[in-house]
Amino acid sequence: ASRVAAVEEKLEQESQENRGAFERFYNNLALFAGGTIAMSVTYLGYLRSTPTAVMGIPFLVASWCSLLACAVGALFCPFLHACYMHFARIREYAQKRMEQRHTEAEALPSLAIVSLRTAGEREEFRTRLQNAAAKYEKDAKWAERREMLYWGAWVWSGRLARVGFLTGLALLLVFAMGNT
Fold it and tell me: What's the half-sphere exposure (Cβ side, CA atoms, 13 Å) at 168?
């Protein structure tokens, strides 16, 4: 049992470290995207001061759009992950409470409960347990819908951030190579 507890503790510690690394990665990605946009604006100012014409402006604009999409996706990714985890835990909690109430309702006839003396009182209490289980089931379904919504938004915001950054850099490189 102590070995399992040690592994569980290590797993929890690594999970917290991974969440921190995940958050830092996306925060840094947003900063790098914003910095790259600022750097490219400075480079454009330099190019405008030279006697040669600036070529490939559409590549530059596409790069800015891609980097801006990266920044937005990267900024929202940790928030969406936190929302996803919140609703996943709410769903899990509601499901466990629902199972608990169903088990209590099923076990009620074999339990000796002092405050429930008559069959009518036992049936009324059993009905309350079943109603509570139904409410928890409804809560679990509600949380699951939101969990799936935030899961999809989280996954796609991360993809948008990563692909947007690489695409923005590639387009900026094409623009720079066209103006050398």
Answer: 26
